[in-house]
Amino acid sequence: MTTTTDAPAGTRTPQGPPLVRVEHVSRTYGSGAAAVHALQDVSFTVAPGELVALVGRSGSGKTTLLNAIGGLDKPDEGRVVVDGREVSALDERGLVELRRDVVSFVFQTFGLVPVLSAAENVGVPLRLRRLPTADREARVALLLDLVGLGDHARQRPGEMSGGQQQRVAIARAIANSPRLLVADEPTGQLDTETGTAVMALLRAVVEAEGMTAIVSTHDPLMMSLADRVIRIADGRLVDA
């Protein structure tokens, strides 16, 4: 299996041992004539600090692949290693620790708690880690400033635009300083201009927080800010 190797102009080429290693991963749903081969012998690596765009049409296997990397699903064959942990072999406790300490997610549906303010939504992961109140409030303020919403801390999701809600979701996702950010179609519900701004924000956040990110998209306009593009079709990695 192959991936594209050319990085867009102006982006850096990260170095170092892979943070993510996907090795011969396959995943099938159903059986017999109704079987859907969501992933077929997929292999690639992602270096620390790299922002990778995972590109493919709807139904190509992007979400299944991201779920396998983040421990939300297990492959039928092959293995996934993230930050030295074999994700595909972790028990439930190990998966909880992985998602608490190593991997964080951003989805296109935002997933904010409607009754909480922007600041309270961002602070949820920090509360779960029992971070002292003063430290939590300082981290939340820093993150809201980072995503350009320092003046919207007290607003609830229903009082914010889609782009603002996604910015809050990104701030919440990086609250615990994960090693890997997994974003599944984070601009899927946004217009082109707002979506491009959110992708630019993800690029800035990855650099500011020193994270690695894998972002799925089917929009070629979103690829220019990535260090590398990986294309998938019918569950297989393909050439550009």
From TrEMBL:
Keyword line: ATP-binding, Nucleotide-binding, Transport
GO cellular component: membrane protein complex; plasma membrane
Keyword 4Fe-4S attached: no
ABC transporter domain mapped to chain residues: 20-240
GO molecular function: ATP binding; ATP hydrolysis activity; transmembrane transporter activity
Signal peptide residue numbers: none
Entry keyword annotation includes ATP-binding: yes
PANTHER family: ABC TRANSPORTER RELATED (PTHR24220:SF685), IMPORT ATP-BINDING PROTEIN (PTHR24220)
Protein name: ABC transporter related protein
Annotated organism of origin: Cellulomonas fimi (strain ATCC 484 / DSM 20113 / JCM 1341 / CCUG 24087 / LMG 16345 / NBRC 15513 / NCIMB 8980 / NCTC 7547 / NRS-133)
